[in-house]
From TrEMBL:
Enzyme Commission number(s) of this protein: 3.1.4.-
Organism ancestry: Eukaryota, Metazoa, Chordata, Craniata, Vertebrata
Binding site for Zn(2+) 1: 224, 260-261, 372
Entry's family note: Belongs to the cyclic nucleotide phosphodiesterase family.
Domain PDEase, residue spans: 142-466
Pfam families: GAF, PDEase_I
Cofactor(s) named in the record: a divalent metal cation
Active site (record annotation): 220 (proton donor)
Entry binding sites for AMP: 220-224, 261, 372, 423
GO MF annotation terms: 3',5'-cyclic-nucleotide phosphodiesterase activity; metal ion binding
Annotated Zn(2+) 2 binding sites: 261
Protein name: Phosphodiesterase
Keywords: cGMP, Hydrolase, Metal-binding
Length: 518
């Protein structure tokens, strides 16, 4: 039986990614098989674009015998050929092993493989182009929109709100129409526009296109992306990130925050795999299907005419920026965070060294996760509202999973989820350790950890309130707002419009007998 492997060329990482390996389709939950695009037989074909017919594999200098030695399989002959698009550019490689009806592959086999590669390349290119074209059609930004955004010039951040650069400010309070200017103002205040000579019209078009690149699920939408980006800005302004990272790394972090959830559908990686979605087929990886898609969408926007904010970069810096963005966006997968957490802790224990490339890479991942979860550092009312949005999105996915005949996890099941306890578990096992570690690395972040810890206490009180009232596990949290509004109307609470201090909001968690929930 002939063995067959198909690799697609990842232009960003310069690697060949297996889509079919030894005759079997690589499933999305398997460890992704990648090889450098310039190594081995497949790499040679990818680089030269020429077919390679090897009659005796063991005598060929590019053949690696390690797999045969470990499996007992014997490779006799190989026919490896490039897959090209309509522009004759290599987009992948196919490899056939051990011809069955002859001693080796002949000229007829080469002609057949060449013909097949043409049709294969066209099909792959059309599939990717169709997806990209449809997305770009819906995200088109007009010249009028760009001009309207820039008509009054850049707005100083202090004019957006006096507390805009403070951790106490709630970015979700900014009207949606004002958020693009908010992004531009942060670009200006962080010095990126001058440092990297970014054309304002290009930047405006990029920002508007990124905004349009978000769908409208309850939580993973543009409002979330803006909030995450704003928190990155706060870290820069208040914690002196310039002392810990290179400027290009901070720039990459901020742009990644903007783009990190592009085209999110309100469903997670597990759902993409279970539903055998197109995304799962395109971005098979170690569980990071959506994160790879978000990064691919960011690249598509940068490649759109008039949107490349890195167009003044040298080739070397441009490649580095894309590498940084890829690593930072992939770090938003919490599974990735949990894998590197021991390394982060060891780095904190040993002491952070800004000259150590590994330390900077780890810190960037931690900062991205901190930004992604930054709603947990705001006041109780914001945190509570965010939980409602998140579980609304979770429950919608759970409903879809049930319709597919699958059993959703507890947090996705509206009939089983006990929101207060799920939130307490999330705070204790994910959020608090993240901000505790951040405070160890960046001493100024201590107040962030303290706010997260205070919100965790509030969830304990909510859980107690559920018990006292005998509420079902899936009860709405709206009653908390009703009590909050009642106390506010009675003048029992301070102004929470922007200070968002948790201690001002504890009143809504009073027990029925007037005491505090425990």
């Amino acid at each position: 039986m002939i063995g067959c492997s198909v690799f697609l060329l990842d232009q960003v990482s310069h690697e060949l990614v297996a889509k079919v390996f030894d005759g079997g389709v690589v499933s999305d939950d398997e460890k992704e098989f990648r090889i450098p695009a310039d190594q081995g037989i497949a790499g040679h074909v990818a680089m030269t674009g020429q077919i390679l017919n090897i009659k005796d594999a063991y005598s060929h200098p590019l053949f690696y015998r390690g797999v045969d030695d470990s499996t007992g399989f014997r490779t006799r002959n190989i026919l490896c050929f490039p897959i090209k698009d309509e522009n004759n550019e290599v987009i992948g490689v196919a490899e056939l092993v051990n011809k069955t009806n002859g001693p080796w592959f002949n000229r007829f086999d080469e002609d057949l493989a060449t013909a097949f590669s043409i049709y294969c390349g066209i099909s792959i290119a059309h599939s990717l182009l169709s997806h990209l074209t449809m997305m770009m059609y819906h995200m088109k930004v007009s010249a009028e929109e760009v001009a309207q955004l820039l008509v009054t010039g850049l707005e100083p951040v202090e004019e957006i709100h006096p507390l805009f650069a403070e951790f106490t400010y709630t970015p979700r309070s900014l009207p949606d129409d004002n958020t693009p200017m908010g992004i531009l103002s942060m670009f200006e205040d962080m010095g990126f526009i001058n440092t990297y000579k970014i054309d304002l019209h290009t930047l405006a078009r990029f920002c508007l296109m990124v905004k349009k690149g978000y769908r409208d699920p309850p939580y993973h939408n543009w409002t979330h992306a803006f909030s995450v980006s704003h928190f990155c800005y706060l870290l820069y302004k208040n914690l002196g990130l310039a002392n810990y990272l290179e400027n290009i790394e901070i720039f990459a972090l901020f742009v990644s925050c903007m783009c990190h959830d592009l085209d999110h559908r309100g469903t997670n990686n597990s759902f993409q795999v279970a539903s055998q979605s197109v995304l799962a087929a395109l971005y098979s990886s170690e569980g990071s299907v959506m994160e790879r898609h978000h990064f691919a969408q960011a690249i598509a926007i940068l490649n759109t005419h008039g949107c490349n904010i890195f167009d003044k970069f040298s080739r070397k810096d441009y490649q580095r920026m894309l590498d940084l963005m890829r690593d930072i966006i992939l770090a938003t997968d919490l599974a990735h965070h949990l894998r590197i957490f021991p390394d982060l802790q060891r780095m904190a224990d040993a002491g952070y060294n800004p000259k150590n490339q590994t330390h900077r890479s780890l810190l960037l991942c931690l900062l991205m996760t901190s930004c992604d979860l930054s709603d947990q550092t705001k006041g109780w009312k914001t945190t509570r509202k965010i939980a409602e949005l998140i579980y609304k999105e979770f429950f919608s996915q759970g409903d879809l999973e049930k319709a597919m005949g699958n059993r959703p996890s507890e947090m996705m099941d509206r009939e089983k989820a006990y929101i207060p306890e799920l939130q307490i578990s999330f705070m204790e096992h994910i959020a608090m350790p993240i901000y505790k570690l951040l405070s160890e690395l960046l001493p100024g972040a201590t107040e962030l950890y303290e706010r997260v810890a205070t919100n965790r206490v509030q969830w304990t009180k909510v859980s107690h309130k559920f018990s006292v009232r005998g509420l079902p596990s899936n009860n709405s949290l709206d009653f908390l707002d009703e009590e909050y509004e009642l106390l506010q109307s009675q003048g029992a609470l301070g102004d929470d419009s922007h200070c968002d201090d948790t201690h001002c909001l504890n009143g809504c968690l009073d027990d029925g007998d007037g005491g505090r929930g425990q």
